[in-house]
Amino acid sequence: MPEGDTVFRTAERLRTALVGKTLTRSDFRVPRYATVDLVGEVVDEVASYGKHLFVRTDRVSIHTHLKMEGVWRVFHCGQRWTKPRVTARLVLATDEVEAVGFSLGKVQVLARAEEHTVIDHLGPDLLGPGWDATEALRRLREYPRRSIGLALLDQRNLAGIGNIYRSEICFLRRVHPATPVGDVTDLPALVDESHRVLGQAAHRPPWRPMVYGRTRRPCPRCGTAIASRLLGEDDPADHITQRERGIFFCPRCQPPP
Ligand SMILES: [Zn+2]
């Protein structure tokens, strides 16, 4: 699942391709917006917030979310698409390029003034200009009994972390992912680490995981075999869509709480 750094870099690519350009074609391949036509509109801005992407014209904001499989590609006009046409959900074309969103998890056209409704509930964006560590801490501390592994995934606390980086951040801070938030030693340092890890992934890719996806391989710090387990909770108010996903850790560097 794409995380904040992927969305951030996608926004950069779309910005380069579209900003200041007039749309010569828009093709929404989702029933609800099939009749929306943005021809003649100029793209003002492309922005990301956490895992959410916004392409703004002076009139509307096109909100997309990659969810599990989504990806944006930019092609020169006439260039053959590198993914199946049937998976295209949205095409935004200019005189020079076609930006195509494939397998997007969400496509929504909003009035510019309504855009905030998508992100109002989210925590501070780890890759945004307004990153606010104090607010992220405040949100995390609201549920001190919740495991840090789940709290990091909840976009209402910090926006941008997915399954890969939550494992990495816990490893770097030597915190077992099942540790309750209230018992984490130096929570502010963990929040700062989150900001650093995402920033590094976004600005200096490629980035190699130390524990994620490395079950039974040696811990880069102590050589112990990396373990993985599912971390879930039966909280109906939980907004995590894929609760039961593997988290990776070193059983020696990150002792159980
Ligand atoms: Zn270790």
TrEMBL record:
GO molecular function: endonuclease activity
Keyword Zinc-finger annotated: yes
Annotated InterPro entries: FPG_cat, FPG_N, H2TH_FPG, Nei2_N, Ribosomal_uS13-like_H2TH, Znf_DNA_glyclase/AP_lyase
FPG-type domain residues: 210-255
Its EC number(s): 4.2.99.18
The Formamidopyrimidine-DNA glycosylase catalytic domain, residue ranges: 2-88
Keywords: DNA damage, DNA repair, DNA-binding, Endonuclease, Glycosidase, Hydrolase, Lyase, Metal-binding, Multifunctional enzyme, Nuclease, Zinc, Zinc-finger
Recorded family membership: Belongs to the FPG family.
Protein's name according to its UniProt entry: DNA-(apurinic or apyrimidinic site) lyase
Organism expressing this protein natively: Nocardia caishijiensis
